[in-house]
């Protein structure tokens, strides 16, 4: 559950340029934050429920056919699926709508102006290659799939590190050296440069090996490399 909230917070910081702090317990006494977190938790719970029910429905595809051709005969599972998906859309699209409104009112801060969604708005309005509604749906999809997939991959990464303490130590040394050399605030804080492949090659090796051993999907994707 914690990793699911962490994944949501991470994707929100990328999508909106805002740290939602859903995983934070320190700020739980702030009523405004508690109210915001309630919506965030509602979104995350609905996302997980949609994935769970999708797995069930994929085993019994006739339920999809019945829902499409005979809507009055929808199964209880399919109705539950629709209910959770409506929550995902309601909460997610509301966040996106509110962001667009603030964008139009020039109410974004520096981080928000550098976010993916702000860039998507600029591209959509300059190129008109997709409609605003289509852009919103694409951003909602990214926010939706990021919660489950990211938390799953993160959990596997942490598990592999937990059962291989010598790898932990080597990774810690690799990251510490990168932070000292390229980190912000005098080499004390992580930043994008620290996490780059050139600065932290062992980090990327660990991530790739974890994904190779336990891929996010049942069927691994094969890719050639320089030694192939």
TrEMBL record:
UniProt-listed Gene3D superfamilies: Cytochrome P450
Signal sequence segment: none
GO-annotated molecular function: heme binding; iron ion binding; monooxygenase activity; oxidoreductase activity, acting on paired donors, with incorporation or reduction of molecular oxygen
Family: Belongs to the cytochrome P450 family.
Protein name, entry field: Cytochrome P450
Organism, scientific name: Trieres chinensis (Marine centric diatom)
